[in-house]
């Protein structure tokens, strides 16, 4: 899931969002986003879909399965 951590942080920073701002916009907890970006936890499917929709990318892209 290392690729997911890298891509999540890249997408967030490209949009100029803090972790707190992303949390508010997606209704996902700050702690969860921090853990994912630091590769300390795996993401659940429902949150993966929320983030893919928010960033307008595929879940495969977020998981590092496609470019």
Spans of at least 5 consecutive residues whose pLDDT stays below 50 are none
Our count of helices gives 5
Cα-atom Rg, whole angstroms?
Answer: 10 Å
Indicate how many domains the architecture comprises: 1
CATH architecture title: Orthogonal Bundle
CATH class: Mainly Alpha
Give the ordered list of helices and strands: HHHHH
The total of beta strands comes to 0
User: What proportion of the residues is helical, as a percent range?
Assistant: 55-70%
Beta-strand residue fraction: under 5%
- Mean pLDDT, all residues: 96
Alpha-carbon distance between the two ends: 15 Å
Indicate the overall shape: globular
Q: Supply the CATH superfamily name.
A: lambda repressor-like DNA-binding domains
**Biggest sheet, in brief?**
none
> Would you give the CATH topology?
434 Repressor (Amino-terminal Domain)
Structural class: mainly alpha
